[in-house]
Specification:
Elements: H1 2-19, H2 25-57, H3 69-91, H4 95-118, H5 124-135, H6 145-148, H7 154-178, H8 182-192, H9 195-209, H10 212-232, H11 235-262, H12 264-272, H13 281-304, H14 308-369
Helix pairs in contact: 1-2, 1-3, 1-7, 1-10, 2-3, 3-4, 3-5, 4-5, 7-14, 8-9, 8-14, 9-13, 10-11, 10-13, 11-13, 13-14
Length: about 375
């Protein structure tokens, strides 16, 4: 589901969060209808692909059997639409409705999983059915009369399709490139060192990793707000907003890193009752997530300025570093080399995004002054 979700976010949701924020009333509802059709179509295609090729694609996975094809297909279709609807609600500033969807979906899911666990009656198939059923509450928004009454023109359809493909293709390539940068380092660590080394890294990562919740929260409102500010104001206003996000968010991230770093051993002991000798790794993960935070406002700015290609290039440079130098660092320095590589990859991505955003910012300023 992670792969299909990545495709959905790249092609449908990311552009929707930017474009919808700049549209008014009737045009916005027409656009939302188009993106819903994009979403339902892509989710349906993914579900059908799993139905047809599921046994071929997942046959080597532990615990897989033929009976999982149908529940996995239903879970993918339902889960992806729920994720789209919550993002749509956030883009409309209907935060309470978006949170209500999350509470109902995840709350009912947790309760169902808990009950079946108590009865020792939980298996993969039932888990997938629970995900599908709990996500289905989002389908109530298909009855939105305002959107259903919209009649987008051929020109509106053409513009929406073009913009989604133009920007979405680079974000999709960026998602694939991501698996060759930071993620490749983790795979290389397991292959060159041991799975135990990856486990140690993963355990310490989780202590700081909850800061990624902040990253996810940003995706619910920063891109849309940035698009609105740029649409109604100027490049100056956009830049001020992104700087504000970077300052406040960066401060929160830094506090999280400092607390996790200074209390690393007690936290590891509390959570795992183990890995206290690896507490030094938390400082590296802290730096990794701290640098990663600042890529978020920059990517939001580049998406608003319709330059998703630069986001892909930044990640590709990180991938090239991993291939050329990351493997060497892991070979000679072990886990220390892996963590150093992760931080260097993140630094390369951040620097590239900053340079490219600055270039476009300056270009727009010059154009506006003419």
């Amino acid at each position: 589901m992670l792969f299909f979700s990545t495709v959905q976010v790249s092609i449908v949701i990311s552009q929707m969060m930017i474009t919808a924020a700049t549209l008014k009333n009737k045009y916005a509802e027409e656009y939302y209808l188009i993106t819903r059709i994009f979403q339902l179509t892509s989710s349906f295609i993914f579900a059908v692909l799993v139905l047809i090729f599921g046994n071929i694609l997942f046959n080597n996975l532990d615990g897989w059997n033929d009976k999982l094809v149908i529940p996995l297909s239903l879970a993918i279709f339902s889960f992806l639409f729920q994720d789209y609807i919550r993002r749509e609600l956030f883009s409309k500033n209907k935060t309470l409705s978006g949170l209500s969807i999350d509470i109902i979906c995840y709350g009912s899911r947790i309760i169902a999983l808990f009950v079946l666990t108590l009865d020792n009656n939980l298996d993969i198939s039932k888990t997938l059915y629970i995900i599908a059923a709990s996500s289905a509450v989002s389908f109530i928004y298909l009855l939105d009369k305002t959107i259903l009454s919209s009649r987008p023109s051929k020109n509106t359809w053409a513009n929406a399709t073009t913009s989604h493909w133009k920007n979405g293709k680079w974000l999709l390539l960026n998602s694939l490139a991501y698996w060759g940068s930071s993620q490749m380092i983790m795979y290389a660590t397991g292959f060159m060192l041991s799975t135990a080394a990856v486990g140690r890294m993963g355990a310490t990562q989780n202590i700081v990793g909850f800061s990624s919740i902040l990253f996810q929260a940003m995706e619910n409102f920063v891109p849309s707000n940035a698009a609105k500010i740029y649409g109604t104001g100027s490049i100056h206003d956009l830049n001020k907003y992104l700087i504000k996000v970077a300052i406040y968010g960066g401060a929160i991230s830094l506090i999280i890193v400092i607390i996790a770093g200074f209390f690393a051993k007690p936290l590891l002991s509390l959570v795992y009752n183990n890995y206290t000798e690896d507490s030094w790794m938390i400082w590296f993960w802290g730096l990794f997530f701290f640098l990663g935070f600042f890529t978020r406002p920059l990517t939001a700015g580049l998406r608003v300025l319709n330059d998703t290609r630069s986001i892909f290039i930044a990640t590709m440079l990180g991938t090239l570093f991993t291939i050329v130098f990351g493997i060497i660092l892991i070979k000679y320095f072990g886990v220390l080399g892996s963590l150093t590589s992760l931080c260097l990859v993140q630094s390369i991505i951040l620097l590239t995004l900053f340079v490219r955003y600055k270039q476009i910012y300056t270009k727009v300023l010059i154009q506006n002054e003419r």
